[in-house]
């Protein structure tokens, strides 16, 4: 998820919104839209793919590093204002963007060389897609990792349902429904990252990666993060989110008597009721699938079908366009969302429109 596109007259063009070069034996990718929190555009996805293709068979490149320009984050996700405009106009440009983005996510997960992601600062939505599928994932004390799609009437994508569906216990369901951003320790606990490195040491780490493989370098920089919050809530999280429906989950949360559980319930109730129910179904169905590629194919169906959901346009309007933070969901309550409404998100797109991955 993303806030706003750049408006500065000197903003980078599509040709330099992703910078790539080889430093020693490391191919370095830099997402270069710092004023927009490095939000992904379709040309950026294609440029990342182009670099990965070129480096995959290049004997001079032993590993890949991806990072974000600026100090605020690796990537805040896709440019949701563009998705809003596309959905509102009834167009299909977003489907083309997602097709290439999800192919990139699968490519990253299967990349033949170490893929090191510096998940410093904000890492949300599509930012998770270009980092958490990598083989070496580094978080810092500044990391804020999230899949916040239910807040804009959307459903976690970019392989997010695959990742969250495999988090310990019901932690992934909690993060999917609430859209909560987690810090370093909780990202490690949930399997969204592998190593903690203090932000001040990232320049040293990057320089060291130019001369040695990641598995040799990381032990010199990795440390233990400050404790997170999710581990202490496992008892109520695992119990409450095991319920069969979103309504039952909320009921259990409110009945816990724990302030954190009550806060989670209130957070959920502010999200799109339709997106919440579709998200719960998507995460649970993804957990039963055998491969990331199958999960991405399912997410592609869900995302494309979401383009015709009124809550997607309304959610982005409220959060990004008008910024009144007062979305008018349709239907406005969980009780108003039927099983048929949820199933519509998973409806086949047609043989010529489905996402095909190797």
UniProtKB/TrEMBL annotation:
NCBIfam families: PRK05617.1
Catalytic activities: 3-hydroxy-2-methylpropanoyl-CoA + H2O = 3-hydroxy-2-methylpropanoate + CoA + H(+)
Family annotation (InterPro entries): ClpP/crotonase-like_dom_sf (IPR029045), ECH_dom (IPR045004), HIBYL-CoA-H (IPR032259)
EC number(s) on file: 3.1.2.4
Domain Enoyl-CoA hydratase/isomerase, chain residue ranges per copy: 27-346
Top-level taxonomy: Bacteria, Bacillati, Actinomycetota, Actinomycetes, Kitasatosporales
Keyword Hydrolase carried by entry: yes
Top EC class of this enzyme: hydrolase
Keywords tagged on the record: Hydrolase
Protein name per the record: 3-hydroxyisobutyryl-CoA hydrolase
């Amino acid at each position: 998820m993303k806030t706003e596109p750049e408006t500065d007259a000197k903003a980078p063009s599509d040709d330099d919104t992703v910078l790539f070069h080889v430093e020693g034996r490391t191919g370095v990718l830099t997402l270069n839209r710092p004023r927009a929190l490095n939000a992904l555009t379709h040309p950026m996805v294609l440029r990342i793919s182009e670099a990965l293709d070129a480096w995959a068979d290049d004997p001079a490149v032993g590993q890949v590093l991806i990072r974000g320009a600026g100090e605020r984050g690796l990537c805040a996700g896709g440019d949701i204002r563009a998705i809003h405009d596309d959905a509102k106009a009834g167009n299909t440009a977003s489907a083309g963007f997602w097709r290439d983005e999800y192919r990139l996510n699968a490519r990253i997960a299967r990349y033949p060389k170490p893929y090191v992601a510096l998940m410093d600062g904000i890492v949300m939505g599509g930012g998770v897609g270009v980092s958490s599928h990598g083989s070496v994932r580094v978080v810092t004390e500044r990391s804020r990792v999230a899949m916040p799609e239910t807040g804009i009437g959307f459903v976690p994508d970019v392989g997010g349902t695959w990742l969250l569906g495999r988090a310990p216990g019901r932690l992934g369901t909690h993060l999917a429904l609430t859209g909560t951003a987690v810090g370093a320790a909780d990202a490690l606990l949930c399997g969204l990252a592998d190593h903690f490195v203090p932000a001040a040491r990232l320049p040293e780490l990057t320089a060291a990666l130019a001369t040695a493989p990641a598995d040799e370098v990381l032990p010199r920089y990795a440390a233990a993060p400050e404790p997170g919050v999710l581990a202490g809530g496992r008892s109520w999280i695992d119990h409450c989110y095991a319920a069969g429906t979103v309504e039952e989950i909320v009921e259990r949360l409110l009945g816990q008597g724990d302030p954190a559980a009550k806060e989670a319930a209130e957070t959920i109730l502010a999200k799109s009721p339709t997106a919440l129910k579709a998200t719960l179904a998507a995460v649970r169905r993804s957990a039963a699938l055998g491969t990331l590629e199958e999960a991405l194919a399912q997410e592609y169906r869900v995302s494309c079908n979401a383009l015709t959901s009124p809550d997607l346009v309304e959610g982005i309007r409220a959060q990004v366009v008008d910024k009144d933070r007062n979305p008018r969901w349709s239907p406005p309550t969980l009780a108003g969302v039927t099983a048929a409404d949820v199933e519509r998100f998973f409806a086949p797109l047609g043989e010529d429109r489905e996402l095909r991955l190797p």
